[in-house]
Predict the structure.
Amino acid sequence: MKDGCQPNDRRSPINKRLALLIAVALALAAVGVFAWRPWLRSYRLSQGRLAMENRDPLQALQYFHAARQLAPDHAETHFQLARVYRRLGQLDRVRESLSTAWRLGYDVAALQREQWLVLAQTGDLKEAEPRLLARLSDPQETRADEISEALVRGYFGNLRFSDAERVLTAWQTDYPDDAEPHFLRGYFYEAFYRYKDAVAEYELGLVKAPGRTDGRLRLSGVLVRQEDYARAERELARCLDEQPLDLQVRTEWAAYLFAVGRGDEAHHELRQVLIRAPDNPEALRLMGQIELAAGRPEEAFRWLLPAAEKTPCDTSVRQALGQALQVAGRADEAAPHFRYVEEAERELRHLDVWLPQVLENPADVSLRYKIGVTVLRYRSPPDGLRWLRTVLEIDPDHVETHRALADYYAQQGDQQAAQRHRQQAESP
């Protein structure tokens, strides 16, 4: 007699065949998944490269990340990640991805080329420039547009405008359907207050690449400055349709709303922006100006004070802060802000004369020095430092530039840099 607790091993033939079929199906499914992985990785890489061709680095990054998840040790994937990180300006990640691609055996020549592009794009042209120019002259080079862009950005960063113009012209000739040269020219014209020319270039770029929200956003900003509000609204509305969650798009939309007198709507937009980016200086400034226009100076302080701390050279912030203090009955505190604005606007007007002159005489160190000091003090310290460094590239012993840099670094607390420039000023 069998013990009732003993398991019964007997199964029907049908159940055995079913279990075998299930096991075989599971095995085939597992094999299928592994067989499809290389194809899927290749597909995602190709889609990422296409997104890069269309100048959509964020979309490309999603595809490359997905490809890496499928094959973490695939060298091509890490190389493509380095390219997209370079486009996004995330240089630490560029180095990490290039190092990984090299460790996994990727082509050394391609890795070296990418390193030169990184150097050029960031303005470090000493080593990269001659190598990239040589590649531009090579008829076998298939990505001359990528090299041209890196060089133009590097030239802009080093304020070598004539060199940038030369490469831009060749780039447009060789790639007539590429929109990027138009956007870069538009950026250049905008920086030099040639707003009409900037609008024309941005519009030409958008004809060739209508989906470039970043170019459309720059166009809308110039149109607002020209008080062409009807056209600006049309462009901004399209930007909102294309990138409804982008903080810069929402901030530019709020600036437009405030400019046309729709302060309550602008206030609502900026509230949403500042929830996600509480330190956004442009949103802080706009919010302070809206509160001031609404007759709430005490509330305006809440936004204008941190904005002034982040961008002390911004005359619009200083003017609004001075007005808020004056309305609040604190005229003594307002006076220094008004004096700064008056002085800054007087000095910055010189740029209207000097900037066109420096385009005609790019080696004029005296002109570059005056522009550098003015921009450093009254507009943007990083841009001012860039101008002054170009003086020293032309004339390493320029005494006035060393003195200006010594004073700046001393104010910033960098005594080592201040002392170095002070010594060079005293004994070049």
In short: Residues 1-7 have pLDDT under 50 and may be disordered. The radius of gyration is 29 Å. Residues 288 and 412 are 27 Å apart (CA to CA).
